Amino acid sequence: MLPPMRLEGRKALVTGGASGIGAAIAARLAAEGAEVWVGDIDRAGAERVAGEIAGHAVDLDVTDLDSATAAVAAAGKLDVLVNNAGTDEFGFFTQTTPEQWQRVIAINLVGVLNCTYAALPAMQQAGYGRIVSISSEAGRVGSKGSAVYSAAKGGVVAFMKTIARENGRYGVTANSIAPGPIETPLLMGAKELGEIGEKLIDNMKGMTQLGRLGRPDEVAAAVAFLASDDATYVTGETLGVSGGLGMV
Ligand SMILES: NC(=O)c1ccc[n+]([C@@H]2O[C@H](COP(=O)([O-])OP(=O)(O)OC[C@H]3O[C@@H](n4cnc5c(N)ncnc54)[C@H](O)[C@@H]3O)[C@@H](O)[C@H]2O)c1
């Protein structure tokens, strides 16, 4: 079934759009009529995805405010910002290093601050904006082997709630999505840990009520909803797309 054209005339920037969930979000927003800018540190990947959806690729390192500002400027007046770029470096906390913590926080948390900082003033001026950040159920319930990642993702949820509180008066909504285990290169990277990694993935699958990994397009459908005018009265929320893993 074809998706509805809820985003016609809207312009969207998807960070980390070259792979996995971001690529699925870019495709879904484009299929619903948006003009999509795919921002990624992986230029070739961004160009590939943009080429598939008749969108645009833009260089973006979310950890660098100048790069975020330049990417937002290249896209022009944005209606939708999807903060999706993220990474993890799996390992039990005491076996990780401060350098790893910094990398994980820089991409997953500071990256969301940078891109939101770059995009928000024009949205405030326009009196319209949709910001959707991809957090994680790890940010709500924790995740073995991902302590710092969980902390960063919890920070994203609190940050989006505050942006929602500060920007309702400008017609800007801000929401988070908390995916569970989704079959992408990021999650499958845990397998590099060998048997422990396989166990981590199996464990997460077992924690879902649906007993399976999720697909990137299942996350993308939730993003499209929050980015559309079907969600005009939804802000400050965190929507779990996790097969019931994070329900309280
Ligand atoms: N896969 C899962 O199980 C899962 C679960 C919960 C949340 N998430 C979140 O979903 C988002 C997407 O993850 P994914 O699984 O698709 O991962 P992925 O590794 O497939 O894709 C991540 C993308 O981000 C890009 N990226 C990395 N660092 C960047 C930077 N500094 N600037 C710009 N782009 C950068 C990568 O090049 C890549 O294209 C992440 O925020 C992740 O934390 C994933």
Topology:
Layout: E1 11-15, H1 20-31, E2 35-40, H2 43-52, E3 56-59, H3 65-75, E4 80-83, H4 98-126, E5 129-134, H5 138-141, H6 147-167, E6 172-179, H7 185-188, H8 195-207, H9 216-227, E7 238-241
Parallel strand pairs: 1-2, 1-4, 2-3, 4-5, 5-6, 6-7
Helix pairs in contact: 1-9, 3-4, 4-6
This protein binds nicotinamide-adenine-dinucleotide.
Residues 15-16, 18-22, 40-42, 45, 60-63, 84-87, 107, 111, 134, 136, 179, 181-182, 184-187 line the site of nicotinamide-adenine-dinucleotide.
General description of the model:
The chain has 248 residues and is an alpha/beta fold. The chain has a single domain (11-183, 215-241), classed as NAD(P)-binding Rossmann-like Domain (Rossmann fold, 3-Layer(aba) Sandwich), CATH 3.40.50.720. 47% of the residues lie in helices and 15% in strands. The protein contains nine helices and seven strands, in the order βαβαβαβαβααβαααβ. It has helices spanning 20-31, 43-52, 65-75, 98-126, 138-141, 147-167, 185-188, 195-207, 216-227, and strands at residues 11-15, 35-40, 56-59, 80-83, 129-134, 172-179, 238-241. It has a seven-stranded parallel β-sheet with strand order 3-2-1-4-5-6-7, with helices on both faces. Helix 3 packs parallel to helix 4 (98-126). The protein is globular and about 50 Å long. The two termini are 33 Å apart. Bound molecules: nicotinamide-adenine-dinucleotide (NAD). Residues 15-16, 18-22, 40-42, 45, 60-63, 84-87, 107, 111, 134, 136, 179, 181-182, 184-187 line the site of nicotinamide-adenine-dinucleotide.
